[in-house]
User: Fold this.
Amino acid sequence: MVLKTWFKNARSVSLMQSGMPALLAVVMAADQSGFGLWQALLAVVGVMSAHLGMNLADDYFDYKADMHSDRDRVIRKGFRAMSVKYPYLIDGSVTPDGLLRAILSFGGIAVACGGVVFISRSLSGGFVGPNGSWWILAIATIACLLGWFYSAPPLKLAYRGLGEIVIGVIFGPLLMTGVYYSACGMVSVDVVMVSIPVGLLVLNILFTHSFIERESDAASNKMTLARLLGSNTANMAAAYLINFLPYLIVVVSVLLGDMSVWYLLVLVMVPNSVWLCRSLSAFNRGETGVPQKPQWWLGPMGNWNQVRVRGIDWFLMRWLAARNILSGFCAIVFVVRLVLLFF
Assistant:
Protein backbone atom coordinates (compact mmCIF):
# COMPACT_ATOMS: atom_id res chain seq x y z
CA MET A 1 0.00 0.00 0.00
CA VAL A 2 2.81 2.40 0.93
CA LEU A 3 4.70 1.55 -2.26
CA LYS A 4 1.56 2.13 -4.35
CA THR A 5 1.08 5.52 -2.72
CA TRP A 6 4.64 6.57 -3.48
CA PHE A 7 4.33 5.41 -7.07
CA LYS A 8 1.29 7.66 -7.37
CA ASN A 9 3.06 10.58 -5.66
CA ALA A 10 6.00 10.13 -8.03
CA ARG A 11 3.66 10.41 -11.04
CA SER A 12 4.25 6.90 -12.32
CA VAL A 13 1.94 7.72 -15.25
CA SER A 14 4.92 9.58 -16.72
CA LEU A 15 7.09 6.44 -16.81
CA MET A 16 6.39 6.07 -20.53
CA GLN A 17 8.91 8.87 -21.07
CA SER A 18 11.69 6.69 -19.65
CA GLY A 19 10.28 3.19 -20.10
CA MET A 20 9.73 3.36 -23.86
CA PRO A 21 13.24 4.66 -24.70
CA ALA A 22 14.80 2.18 -22.26
CA LEU A 23 13.03 -0.84 -23.74
CA LEU A 24 13.84 0.42 -27.22
CA ALA A 25 17.53 0.56 -26.32
CA VAL A 26 17.36 -3.02 -25.02
CA VAL A 27 15.82 -4.30 -28.26
CA MET A 28 18.44 -2.44 -30.29
CA ALA A 29 21.21 -4.11 -28.26
CA ALA A 30 19.71 -7.61 -28.42
CA ASP A 31 21.66 -8.76 -31.49
CA GLN A 32 25.07 -7.79 -30.12
CA SER A 33 27.41 -10.56 -29.00
CA GLY A 34 27.80 -9.15 -25.51
CA PHE A 35 24.08 -8.87 -24.82
CA GLY A 36 23.01 -9.86 -21.33
CA LEU A 37 19.33 -9.98 -20.45
CA TRP A 38 19.78 -9.54 -16.72
CA GLN A 39 22.05 -6.52 -17.18
CA ALA A 40 19.47 -5.05 -19.56
CA LEU A 41 16.61 -5.57 -17.10
CA LEU A 42 18.61 -4.06 -14.25
CA ALA A 43 19.35 -1.03 -16.40
CA VAL A 44 15.65 -0.56 -17.20
CA VAL A 45 14.66 -0.86 -13.53
CA GLY A 46 17.43 1.56 -12.55
CA VAL A 47 16.38 4.12 -15.14
CA MET A 48 12.73 4.01 -14.13
CA SER A 49 13.60 4.26 -10.43
CA ALA A 50 15.79 7.27 -11.15
CA HIS A 51 12.90 8.82 -13.10
CA LEU A 52 10.51 8.44 -10.15
CA GLY A 53 13.12 9.83 -7.78
CA MET A 54 13.65 12.81 -10.08
CA ASN A 55 9.91 13.53 -10.16
CA LEU A 56 9.79 13.53 -6.37
CA ALA A 57 12.92 15.70 -6.17
CA ASP A 58 11.20 18.22 -8.44
CA ASP A 59 8.26 18.30 -6.02
CA TYR A 60 10.61 18.68 -3.06
CA PHE A 61 12.48 21.68 -4.42
CA ASP A 62 9.32 23.29 -5.82
CA TYR A 63 7.74 22.96 -2.39
CA LYS A 64 10.82 24.41 -0.74
CA ALA A 65 10.57 27.37 -3.12
CA ASP A 66 6.93 27.77 -1.98
CA MET A 67 5.68 27.85 -5.57
CA HIS A 68 2.24 26.60 -4.52
CA SER A 69 1.34 30.12 -3.40
CA ASP A 70 1.90 31.35 -6.96
CA ARG A 71 -0.18 28.50 -8.36
CA ASP A 72 -3.03 29.48 -6.07
CA ARG A 73 -3.02 33.01 -7.46
CA VAL A 74 -3.29 31.86 -11.08
CA ILE A 75 -5.71 28.99 -10.56
CA ARG A 76 -8.06 30.31 -13.26
CA LYS A 77 -5.36 31.08 -15.81
CA GLY A 78 -4.09 27.70 -16.92
CA PHE A 79 -4.09 23.93 -16.68
CA ARG A 80 -0.90 23.78 -14.60
CA ALA A 81 -2.66 25.67 -11.84
CA MET A 82 -5.85 23.60 -12.08
CA SER A 83 -4.15 20.61 -10.53
CA VAL A 84 -2.12 20.69 -7.33
CA LYS A 85 1.32 19.37 -8.12
CA TYR A 86 2.09 17.87 -4.71
CA PRO A 87 -1.18 17.46 -2.78
CA TYR A 88 0.43 14.94 -0.45
CA LEU A 89 2.66 17.71 0.90
CA ILE A 90 0.00 20.40 1.05
CA ASP A 91 -2.51 18.21 2.94
CA GLY A 92 0.17 17.11 5.40
CA SER A 93 -0.08 13.38 4.65
CA VAL A 94 3.66 13.43 3.86
CA THR A 95 6.32 15.61 5.44
CA PRO A 96 9.24 17.10 3.49
CA ASP A 97 11.57 14.78 5.42
CA GLY A 98 9.43 11.79 4.43
CA LEU A 99 9.57 12.93 0.82
CA LEU A 100 13.34 13.24 1.02
CA ARG A 101 13.58 9.66 2.31
CA ALA A 102 11.47 8.47 -0.62
CA ILE A 103 13.74 10.33 -3.05
CA LEU A 104 16.78 8.67 -1.51
CA SER A 105 15.06 5.27 -1.66
CA PHE A 106 14.30 5.50 -5.38
CA GLY A 107 17.77 6.92 -5.95
CA GLY A 108 19.28 4.08 -3.93
CA ILE A 109 17.55 1.48 -6.12
CA ALA A 110 18.88 3.23 -9.22
CA VAL A 111 22.42 3.35 -7.81
CA ALA A 112 22.27 -0.32 -6.77
CA CYS A 113 21.13 -1.42 -10.23
CA GLY A 114 23.76 0.73 -11.91
CA GLY A 115 26.45 -0.50 -9.54
CA VAL A 116 25.77 -4.17 -10.26
CA VAL A 117 25.82 -3.56 -14.03
CA PHE A 118 29.00 -1.48 -13.69
CA ILE A 119 30.79 -4.27 -11.82
CA SER A 120 29.59 -6.85 -14.33
CA ARG A 121 30.75 -4.85 -17.35
CA SER A 122 34.05 -3.98 -15.64
CA LEU A 123 34.77 -7.67 -15.07
CA SER A 124 33.93 -8.64 -18.64
CA GLY A 125 35.33 -5.69 -20.60
CA GLY A 126 37.52 -3.68 -18.26
CA PHE A 127 37.19 -0.04 -17.27
CA VAL A 128 39.22 1.74 -19.97
CA GLY A 129 39.12 1.53 -23.74
CA PRO A 130 36.38 2.26 -26.30
CA ASN A 131 34.08 -0.35 -24.73
CA GLY A 132 35.18 0.11 -21.13
CA SER A 133 32.74 0.43 -18.24
CA TRP A 134 33.71 4.10 -17.89
CA TRP A 135 30.71 4.66 -20.18
CA ILE A 136 28.35 3.77 -17.32
CA LEU A 137 30.16 6.00 -14.85
CA ALA A 138 30.27 8.96 -17.24
CA ILE A 139 26.65 8.71 -18.39
CA ALA A 140 25.29 8.10 -14.89
CA THR A 141 27.27 11.02 -13.46
CA ILE A 142 26.07 13.47 -16.13
CA ALA A 143 22.47 12.25 -15.85
CA CYS A 144 22.49 12.49 -12.04
CA LEU A 145 23.92 16.00 -12.08
CA LEU A 146 21.41 17.19 -14.67
CA GLY A 147 18.55 15.44 -12.87
CA TRP A 148 19.47 16.88 -9.48
CA PHE A 149 20.13 20.42 -10.66
CA TYR A 150 16.97 20.36 -12.77
CA SER A 151 15.23 21.81 -9.71
CA ALA A 152 17.94 22.02 -7.05
CA PRO A 153 19.96 25.15 -6.30
CA PRO A 154 22.27 26.70 -7.24
CA LEU A 155 21.67 25.90 -10.93
CA LYS A 156 17.88 25.31 -10.85
CA LEU A 157 17.89 24.68 -14.59
CA ALA A 158 14.11 24.29 -14.82
CA TYR A 159 13.73 27.81 -13.43
CA ARG A 160 15.92 29.26 -16.18
CA GLY A 161 14.01 27.99 -19.21
CA LEU A 162 16.33 25.02 -19.71
CA GLY A 163 14.22 22.30 -18.09
CA GLU A 164 12.76 20.97 -21.34
CA ILE A 165 16.19 20.66 -22.94
CA VAL A 166 17.62 18.93 -19.86
CA ILE A 167 14.82 16.35 -19.87
CA GLY A 168 15.26 15.76 -23.60
CA VAL A 169 18.98 15.08 -23.14
CA ILE A 170 18.44 12.82 -20.11
CA PHE A 171 15.61 10.71 -21.56
CA GLY A 172 17.04 10.63 -25.07
CA PRO A 173 20.79 10.29 -25.70
CA LEU A 174 21.92 9.69 -22.10
CA LEU A 175 19.22 7.15 -21.22
CA MET A 176 19.32 5.17 -24.46
CA THR A 177 23.11 5.14 -24.74
CA GLY A 178 23.43 4.11 -21.10
CA VAL A 179 20.88 1.31 -21.30
CA TYR A 180 22.31 0.11 -24.62
CA TYR A 181 25.82 -0.09 -23.16
CA SER A 182 24.55 -1.79 -20.00
CA ALA A 183 22.76 -4.38 -22.13
CA CYS A 184 25.60 -5.29 -24.50
CA GLY A 185 28.83 -3.66 -23.31
CA MET A 186 29.35 -1.30 -26.25
CA VAL A 187 27.99 1.84 -27.90
CA SER A 188 27.01 2.05 -31.57
CA VAL A 189 26.08 4.75 -34.07
CA ASP A 190 22.56 3.43 -34.63
CA VAL A 191 21.48 3.81 -31.00
CA VAL A 192 22.85 7.36 -30.94
CA MET A 193 21.00 8.24 -34.15
CA VAL A 194 17.74 6.89 -32.70
CA SER A 195 18.27 8.46 -29.28
CA ILE A 196 18.43 12.01 -30.65
CA PRO A 197 14.95 11.90 -32.25
CA VAL A 198 13.59 10.22 -29.12
CA GLY A 199 15.09 12.97 -26.96
CA LEU A 200 13.53 15.63 -29.16
CA LEU A 201 10.12 13.99 -28.90
CA VAL A 202 10.42 13.78 -25.11
CA LEU A 203 11.34 17.46 -25.15
CA ASN A 204 8.26 18.03 -27.32
CA ILE A 205 5.94 16.79 -24.56
CA LEU A 206 7.27 19.35 -22.09
CA PHE A 207 7.51 22.11 -24.68
CA THR A 208 3.88 21.60 -25.70
CA HIS A 209 2.94 21.99 -22.04
CA SER A 210 4.93 25.19 -21.58
CA PHE A 211 3.79 26.55 -24.98
CA ILE A 212 0.15 26.38 -23.87
CA GLU A 213 0.90 27.60 -20.36
CA ARG A 214 2.95 30.71 -21.15
CA GLU A 215 0.40 33.09 -19.62
CA SER A 216 0.00 31.26 -16.32
CA ASP A 217 3.73 30.53 -16.12
CA ALA A 218 4.44 34.24 -16.56
CA ALA A 219 1.94 35.04 -13.79
CA SER A 220 3.68 32.60 -11.43
CA ASN A 221 7.12 33.79 -12.55
CA LYS A 222 8.03 30.31 -13.80
CA MET A 223 10.58 30.46 -16.61
CA THR A 224 10.16 27.81 -19.32
CA LEU A 225 11.62 27.31 -22.77
CA ALA A 226 8.47 28.80 -24.31
CA ARG A 227 8.79 31.93 -22.18
CA LEU A 228 12.52 32.10 -22.87
CA LEU A 229 11.84 32.10 -26.62
CA GLY A 230 9.35 34.89 -26.10
CA SER A 231 7.46 35.68 -29.28
CA ASN A 232 4.74 33.61 -30.93
CA THR A 233 6.87 33.40 -34.07
CA ALA A 234 9.88 32.01 -32.19
CA ASN A 235 7.72 29.50 -30.35
CA MET A 236 6.06 28.27 -33.53
CA ALA A 237 9.46 27.94 -35.23
CA ALA A 238 10.64 25.85 -32.26
CA ALA A 239 7.48 23.72 -32.37
CA TYR A 240 7.99 22.87 -36.04
CA LEU A 241 11.71 22.19 -35.51
CA ILE A 242 11.17 19.93 -32.49
CA ASN A 243 8.36 18.02 -34.19
CA PHE A 244 9.91 17.44 -37.61
CA LEU A 245 13.66 17.24 -36.97
CA PRO A 246 13.29 13.66 -35.61
CA TYR A 247 11.89 12.48 -38.96
CA LEU A 248 14.59 14.34 -40.89
CA ILE A 249 17.30 12.65 -38.80
CA VAL A 250 15.84 9.22 -39.57
CA VAL A 251 15.56 9.97 -43.30
CA VAL A 252 19.16 11.24 -43.48
CA SER A 253 20.41 8.23 -41.49
CA VAL A 254 18.66 5.87 -43.91
CA LEU A 255 20.11 7.70 -46.93
CA LEU A 256 23.60 7.48 -45.39
CA GLY A 257 23.16 3.76 -44.78
CA ASP A 258 23.33 4.05 -40.99
CA MET A 259 19.76 2.75 -40.59
CA SER A 260 17.59 0.21 -42.36
CA VAL A 261 15.08 1.58 -44.86
CA TRP A 262 12.33 0.03 -42.71
CA TYR A 263 12.86 2.75 -40.11
CA LEU A 264 11.14 5.09 -42.57
CA LEU A 265 7.90 3.62 -41.23
CA VAL A 266 8.15 6.25 -38.48
CA LEU A 267 6.95 8.70 -41.13
CA VAL A 268 3.41 7.45 -40.50
CA MET A 269 3.54 9.67 -37.40
CA VAL A 270 4.07 12.82 -39.51
CA PRO A 271 0.30 13.60 -39.71
CA ASN A 272 0.19 13.62 -35.90
CA SER A 273 3.01 16.17 -35.78
CA VAL A 274 1.30 18.25 -38.47
CA TRP A 275 -1.94 18.23 -36.44
CA LEU A 276 -0.12 19.25 -33.26
CA CYS A 277 1.74 22.14 -34.90
CA ARG A 278 -1.43 23.42 -36.57
CA SER A 279 -3.26 23.14 -33.26
CA LEU A 280 -0.54 25.12 -31.47
CA SER A 281 -0.65 27.73 -34.23
CA ALA A 282 -4.42 28.03 -33.72
CA PHE A 283 -3.82 28.38 -29.97
CA ASN A 284 -1.45 31.26 -30.72
CA ARG A 285 -4.26 32.99 -32.59
CA GLY A 286 -6.55 32.64 -29.59
CA GLU A 287 -8.40 29.62 -30.98
CA THR A 288 -8.05 27.45 -27.89
CA GLY A 289 -10.90 25.07 -28.68
CA VAL A 290 -10.43 21.50 -29.89
CA PRO A 291 -12.76 18.98 -31.59
CA GLN A 292 -15.44 17.53 -29.32
CA LYS A 293 -14.01 14.08 -29.96
CA PRO A 294 -10.36 13.39 -30.84
CA GLN A 295 -9.61 11.64 -34.12
CA TRP A 296 -8.70 7.97 -33.59
CA TRP A 297 -5.31 8.36 -35.25
CA LEU A 298 -4.19 10.88 -32.62
CA GLY A 299 -3.84 7.94 -30.25
CA PRO A 300 -5.31 7.12 -26.82
CA MET A 301 -6.79 10.08 -24.94
CA GLY A 302 -8.12 8.39 -21.81
CA ASN A 303 -11.67 8.96 -20.59
CA TRP A 304 -12.49 11.82 -22.94
CA ASN A 305 -15.99 12.46 -21.61
CA GLN A 306 -14.55 13.02 -18.15
CA VAL A 307 -11.85 15.28 -19.59
CA ARG A 308 -14.51 17.45 -21.26
CA VAL A 309 -16.58 17.62 -18.08
CA ARG A 310 -13.52 18.90 -16.20
CA GLY A 311 -13.01 21.55 -18.88
CA ILE A 312 -9.41 20.63 -19.65
CA ASP A 313 -9.89 19.22 -23.15
CA TRP A 314 -8.27 22.33 -24.67
CA PHE A 315 -5.03 21.39 -22.91
CA LEU A 316 -5.06 17.60 -22.76
CA MET A 317 -5.80 16.95 -26.44
CA ARG A 318 -2.67 18.85 -27.42
CA TRP A 319 -0.51 17.45 -24.62
CA LEU A 320 -1.64 13.85 -25.14
CA ALA A 321 -1.09 14.24 -28.89
CA ALA A 322 2.55 15.13 -28.13
CA ARG A 323 2.87 12.16 -25.77
CA ASN A 324 1.37 9.82 -28.35
CA ILE A 325 3.82 10.99 -31.01
CA LEU A 326 6.66 9.82 -28.78
CA SER A 327 5.02 6.49 -27.94
CA GLY A 328 4.08 5.86 -31.58
CA PHE A 329 7.57 6.69 -32.83
CA CYS A 330 9.19 4.41 -30.23
CA ALA A 331 6.70 1.60 -30.85
CA ILE A 332 7.40 1.63 -34.60
CA VAL A 333 11.17 1.57 -34.11
CA PHE A 334 10.72 -1.16 -31.49
CA VAL A 335 8.70 -3.38 -33.86
CA VAL A 336 11.04 -2.73 -36.80
CA ARG A 337 14.03 -3.70 -34.69
CA LEU A 338 12.32 -6.88 -33.50
CA VAL A 339 11.45 -7.88 -37.07
CA LEU A 340 15.01 -7.21 -38.24
CA LEU A 341 16.31 -9.40 -35.41
CA PHE A 342 14.43 -12.44 -36.64
CA PHE A 343 14.26 -11.95 -40.41
User: Anything to note?
Assistant: The two ends are 44 Å apart (CA to CA). The chain has a mean pLDDT of 89.
